[in-house]
Write a structure and sequence with these properties.
CATH architecture of the largest domain: Alpha-Beta Complex
Order of helices and strands: EEEHHEEEEHEHEHEHEHEHEHEHE
Structural class: alpha/beta
Number of strands: 15
CATH class of the largest domain: Alpha Beta
Distance between the termini: 23 Å
Radius of gyration: 20 Å
Strand content: 25-35%
CATH topology of the largest domain: Quinone Oxidoreductase, Chain A, domain 1
C-alpha cells in the first residue's frame, strides 16, 4: 500500500509517499481501507517535534528520539472494512466505519489495522469526509465543554481560536448545549463563526483578549483551543463559578491546574464518536473542512497546517492521486 512516511523530525518536506507492506488485522482487529483521514495540528506537531512547553523530552521519549517510531502518522480515519481478524466481533467486511487509532497512528495510508472495539459505523447520510472531519476537533470540544465544564443552558461561553478544528466544533457544541457564545477569531473568519452560531464575534487583532478583562467582561466558561491564554491571563475573564478550559496547555499548567482551571487530553471514546456522528447526521453539527487533498500532497497538507491559516479540518484522501484531486 501507499502511505505517508516520516522517518525523522523536521519540516513538511520530510514527509515521503512510499510503498510499504500492508498491515495485517490481528486478533480482535479489522483492516480498513481508508477513504478519508485528516491532517491536523497534532500530526504537524509530531512531525516537527514541536511539543508544548515542558513536553519536549517526554514527547521524544514516548514517540521517538530522532523521528517517530510510528513512521506513518494520522490518528483519524473513515473508510470501509476490508478484512477481519479472529474474534473481531460486531463488524463485517463492507461496513462503513470510522474511528481514531491513538498512539498507534497509521491513518495516513491506504489501509489501517485497528481494534474492532475502536470503531463505530457511519450512517448512510454521513459522508466519509464528514465522519473523519468531525472526530479530531469534535472529541476535544465535546470533552471539555460537556464533561469538564458541564456547560449549562444560559451560560456565557468564550471560544478562543474559533475557526480551527476544535474551535469550529466548540462554537456549535456550546450553542447546542444552550450557551450564549462569543467567538474569538480573525476578521476573515468572522462570518463563518456567525454561521456556526456565535452570538458575537471578536477580531483578536483589533480587540485583544486582555482588553475584555480590562473592560470588566466576564464569562462562565472560557475555552482556549489554541494556547493563547494561561491560568494567569484567563482567570480574570471568569465570572463567579467560571471555568477556564485550556486545550493546549503546557506541562506546567497541566501539573498545577486547580479549581477552575481544566486541562488534559480528550479520551478517544466510541460513545463520543457516536454522539458526534448523530449530531452531524441530524444537521445539528456542521463539519468545517479546509478542502481535501490526495495522499500525494500530504507534505503540502502539513505545510498548510504549519502556516496557521487552516480553517476547520484539512481532509486527506489516501485512495486518490494528486492528479485526481487538485483542490
Amino acid at each position: 500500500m501507499r502511505a505517508g512516511v516520516v522517518e525523522r523530525y523536521g519540516p513538511p518536506s520530510v514527509v515521503r509517499i512510499e510503498t510499504v507492506a500492508d498491515p495485517v488485522a490481528g486478533r480482535g482487529e479489522v483492516l480498513v481501507r481508508v477513504m478519508a483521514s485528516t491532517v491536523n495540528s497534532g500530526d504537524a506537531r509530531i512531525r516537527g517535534a514541536r511539543f508544548p512547553r515542558g513536553f519536549a523530552l517526554p514527547g521524544r521519549l514516548a514517540l521517538g528520539l530522532r523521528g517517530p517510531r510510528a513512521s506513518v502518522l494520522g490518528v483519524v480515519f473513515a473508510g470501509v472494512v476490508e478484512a477481519t481478524g479472529a474474534e473481531a466481533d460486531g463488524v463485517a467486511v463492507g461496513d462503513r466505519v470510522c474511528g481514531m487509532t491513538g498512539a498507534r497512528m497509521g491513518a495516513h495510508a491506504e489501509l489501517v489495522a485497528v481494534s474492532a472495539s475502536r470503531l463505530v459505523r457511519i450512517a448512510d447520510e454521513v459522508s466519509f469526509d464528514d465522519a473523519a472531519g468531525v472526530l479530531f476537533g469534535g472529541t476535544t470540544a465535546l470533552y471539555f465543554l460537556r464533561d469538564r465544564a458541564a456547560v449549562r443552558s444560559g451560560e456565557r461561553v468564550l471560544v478562543v481560536g474559533a475557526s480551527g478544528a476544535v474551535g469550529t466544533n466548540a462554537v456549535q457544541l456550546a450553542k447546542h448545549l444552550g450557551a450564549t457564545v462569543t467567538a474569538v477569531t480573525s476578521a476573515g473568519n468572522a462570518e463563518l463563526s456567525r454561521e456556526l452560531g456565535a452570538d458575537r464575534v471578536i477580531d483578536y487583532r483589533v480587540d485583544p483578549i486582555a482588553a475584555l478583562a480590562d473592560r470588566g467582561e466576564r464569562f462562565d466558561v472560557v475555552f482556549d483551543t489554541v494556547g493563547a491564554l494561561s491560568p494567569a491571563t484567563g482567570r480574570p475573564l471568569l465570572a463567579e463559578g467560571g471555568r477556564l478550559l485550556l486545550a493546549a496547555a503546557t506541562l506546567g499548567e497541566i501539573v498545577t491546574a486547580r479549581g477552575p482551571v481544566k486541562t488534559g487530553t480528550a479520551p478517544q471514546r466510541t460513545e463520543d464518536f457516536t454522539t458526534l456522528l448523530e449530531l452531524v447526521g441530524s444537521g445539528a453539527l456542521r463539519v468545517v473542512r479546509d478542502g481535501a487533498l490526495a495522499l500525494d500532497r500530504l507534505a503540502e497538507a502539513h505545510a498548510r497546517v504549519d502556516a496557521g491559516r487552516k480553517v476547520g479540518n484539512l481532509v486527506l484522501h489516501p485512495q486518490e492521486t494528486a492528479d485526481a484531486n487538485a483542490d
